[in-house]
Specification:
It is a single chain. The protein is mainly beta. The longest helix is centred in the first third of the chain and has 16 residues. The N terminus is likely disordered.
Length: 357
């Protein structure tokens, strides 16, 4: 299959229905961040989340440029409050605040919307029901480290978007980067309509794009979504050293990519019922698997891989009969959901060994 011709100008054109190419992406001048300030806000109670939302509006209105670090106090018991970080009047002013949320292993209620120059979630547990998406809009980047989404539930039976939606909002000249590392996505569910668990996308007349999307050493276990990770309009998607276990028989795939230049999966393992559950692509070249394994129930040696995978994947797909990772995955799911703590690296290493990685 001919490689997709998705230079970044084409990405922007597809996004906006514009046939004319646009200038290539450039990073913002770092000089405009040179005088940035720093502010720390500690969250000890649910009331603090409400105060945080109010303070963020004030910071935005004042033209604050810099870093806001939100620290969740260890042991804080936070209830769902409908909190968010956004301007009082969305659409007014440019995002100038880099937000870092450090959870200290605690459970943080799902936000409604966050608008930020960049957003980082560190050691955060997200869980619980939502009727629609938690909407995260960023200009330059989204990072998720040592965090977990567990037992999340969509409650609107007609919702077909994402549970967490990350928007590239920097416009056609500023690509947003995404980094997800040492994270866990465990036992999360859609409702009646096909939806996406984590959806990286864009929209609007001045829609942006993702310069690169990287996923490393992360586990996707027992989720029931039409797509666990869905990416639109990205120059490159790289998944490394990650584990995927799909025991849901519903339609869908672990990875779904639309209008992406290249998707490469290396050193990862997929345990699925059907080879079609590994990936789905649209206006994207087939996913390239390197040094990875795909374990499929009842797979016949010599069978052709699905069209969404590069033809070289044929040598990496095998029958899952006797796969020792099923019990280990079930154990990991139970532990993560029961403890509501981000499993440590030793837990991931143990699971990887069971997966044969």
């Amino acid at each position: 299959m001919k490689a997709a011709t998705l230079a970044i100008a084409a990405l922007a054109a597809c996004a906006n229905g514009d046939a004319e190419p646009r200038p290539s992406a450039t990073k913002p001048d770092p000089a405009h961040r040179a005088t940035e300030e720093s502010h720390v806000f500690e969250v000890k109670s649910s009331d603090d989340l409400g105060r945080l939302s109010t303070q963020y509006m004030a910071m935005w209105s004042s033209g604050f440029t810099g870093r806001l670090e939100v620290k969740v106090a260890p042991g804080a018991e936070l209830q769902a409050t409908g909190w968010g970080l956004e301007p009082e009047h969305p659409g007014t002013g440019e995002p100038r605040i880099d937000v870092v949320i450090t959870g200290n292993g605690g459970v943080l209620p799902m936000p409604g919307r966050i608008f930020a120059h960049s957003l980082e979630l560190d050691d955060v547990v997200l869980t619980g029901p939502r009727g629609g998406a938690a909407e995260l809009r960023v200009t330059t980047g989204f990072t998720m480290r040592r965090s977990m989404l567990v037992d999340a539930r969509l409650t609107d039976p007609n919702w077909t978007g994402g549970f967490i939606e990350v928007y590239a909002d920097g416009g056609p000249r500023v690509g947003a980067s995404v980094l997800i590392e040492d994270c866990w996505f465990v036992r999360n569910f859609q409702t009646d309509k096909p939806a996406k668990m984590l959806w990286l996308t864009q929209r609007g007349e001045d829609a942006g794009f993702f310069d690169k999307v990287q996923v490393a050493r992360s586990a996707f276990l027992g989720n029931a979504f039409a797509a666990d990770l869905a990416v639109q309009y990205a120059r490159g998607v790289s998944i490394e050293g990650s584990l995927f276990f799909r025991n849901w028989s519903g339609p869908g795939s672990e990875i779904s990519c639309s209008n992406c230049e290249a998707v490469v999966v290396s050193g990862s393992t997929f345990a699925v019922d059907s080879a079609d559950q590994v990936a789905a692509v649209e206006r994207t070249q087939p996913v390239l698997l390197k040094g990875s394994r795909v374990l499929v129930r009842g797979w016949k040696r010599g069978a052709a891989p699905p069209a969404a995978l590069d033809s070289s994947a044929a040598d990496l797909i095998a029958d899952s009969a006797g796969f020792a990772g099923t019990a280990a995955a079930s154990e990991a799911i139970t532990a993560a959901a029961g403890q509501l703590r981000v499993p440590g690296r030793d837990a991931f290493a143990k699971l990887a060994r069971a997966f044969g990685g």
